[in-house]
Each structure stands twice: as C-alpha cells, then as structure tokens.
Write a structure and sequence with these properties.
252 residues; Phosphorylase Kinase, domain 1; alpha+beta; 6 helices; D-amino Acid Aminotransferase, Chain A, domain 1; globular; 2 domains
Length: 252
C-alpha cells in the first residue's frame, strides 16, 4: 500500500499521508528515548514489536466497544490509522505508585493505590510535559467538560481491559499513558483512543518476580529492552516462543 509524504516525525514514530483521505500511515521506529529525549539509543526490533503489540491492544479494545483510530496493520512496521485531531494531553492511569508519582508524593514504588488514579499532562516536550489539572484544561480550552467526562470514561475502560489481559499472562499493569483524538463525522465529533499502546507507554511488571517488562528497562539500564518487549509479546501469543527479539516472527 502506497504511503504519501511525511507529515510528522516524533521520538518513536513517523506519520505519513495515507492512501485515502482521512487516513495516516504510522511507522514505528527502533529509536528509544527517555528523560525527555536526554537518553537515546536505537534498539533493533523495537519498532516491529511495538507495531504488533499496539495492533493487538487496539483490536482488543475495539472488540469491547472502545473506539480507537486503528484500522489495520500494513506490514511489520506500519499500520493504517484514522486521521484525528489529537487533544494536547497525555492521559495517565495509575494502579500502583511508580515513576514520577513516587517522586512527587514520596510513595514507595509498587504501592497499590486505593483506586485507579487518572492524571493529565500537557503535551509539550519543550516544557517536559507538565502535570495539569482539569481547571487548566478548561481554562485554556484544550477540552470541554463533556470531553473530560468522556476521556475519563475511556481511560478507565482501557485500564479495565489492559489490567485483565495482563493479569491473565502473569503481568501487573502498574500504569499506562494514552492519547485521545477527535474524529469528525459531519457535524458531530467523537473521541477515540489514538497514538499507540505498547510497552513504551505502559509500566509492566512480572506478577511473581517484579521484573520490569517495559521502557524502565532502558531508562534504568536493566538489560535488553527487546528481550523485555518480546517476553510480553510471547506471553500474549503475539510472538511464537521460538522467535528471537531482533528478528521477531509475528503470529497472524
């Protein structure tokens, strides 16, 4: 399938014009970044794994009625998605304390939270994606109150789905980040889960050992990132057990 001109290049993906109006080709890179791109590397096979894992999660969400921008996977590194207007927020759902929450609030990593906590960050790399409140979001017109109600509902539904899927393969969903896009259909708009869902955007710990199976492996120099991501893919049945991380074989 032919792709058009490049629209945007980010830290982990490149977006191209799609073959039809209203579509985009999303290409997954092997680049890994952390600490607002202060730490960088190229990890062989990472883009292939994230492409397939994001397809797996987006397809699963669609099956339970959660709307997403995903249309279909095109090849090992590309997928076709619906064009949408991205709301400039990172929506973070936390089930256990970790990362910046532990630092901000002095809560030991791994502490189970009394309930899932949803946080919002303003998407701006130059500012370090600062934490914002619903008051900021309303005041600056990033989203309406109805949007925020819908975003909260979507985030919690995604959390229920991901938590269950991960628990079923022996993985604890510590937290995750999603982005939300607006899709316009005539005079109406609806919100969809956009961007990607992968170990790049989740914290995933082995239920028994606590081993990290997410981008913290790269952030904290804990070993091979592709080994960690491939382990998630194998447990979910996305990769056969005989496949290698640098040359992963996908299960159709």
């Amino acid at each position: 399938m032919a792709r058009g001109k490049k629209i945007y290049e980010g830290k982990a993906k490149i977006l191209f014009e799609g073959p039809e109006p209203g579509t985009i080709v999303q290409y997954f890179k092997d680049d890994a970044t952390a600490f607002n791109a202060e730490k960088k590397d190229v990890i062989d096979g990472k883009g292939v794994l994230n492409n397939r894992l994001s397809e797996y999660f987006m397809t699963g969400l669609a099956q339970i009625g959660v709307p997403t921008h995903f249309l279909k996977r095109l090849n090992m590194r590309e997928q076709l998605v619906r064009s949408c207007e991205i709301i400039p927020l990172e929506v973070i759902v936390r089930n256990f304390a970790a990362g910046s929450m532990s630092k901000r609030l002095g809560i030991e990593e791994g502490t189970q939270l009394p309930r899932p906590i949803v946080e919002y960050c303003y998407k701006d790399d130059s500012l370090g994606d600062p934490l914002v409140t619903e008051e900021h979001i309303a005041a600056f017109g990033w989203a309406t109150q109805q949007d925020m109600d819908d975003i909260l509902g979507l985030a919690l539904r995604v959390n229920d789905y991901l938590s269950g899927v991960m628990y079923g393969v022996g993985i604890k969903l510590v937290d995750f980040k999603i982005e939300i896009g607006r899709v316009y259909e005539g005079d109406f708009q609806r919100l969809v889960v956009a961007d990607e869902i992968s170990p790049d955007s989740c914290r995933l710990w082995d239920l028994e050992t606590g081993q990290k199976l997410d981008k913290d492996v790269f952030r904290r120099d804990l070993g091979s990132l592709t080994d960690a991501y491939a382990e998630v893919a194998r447990r979910l049945g996305v990769m056969p057990k005989t496949s290698t991380p640098t040359k992963p074989t996908l299960v159709n």
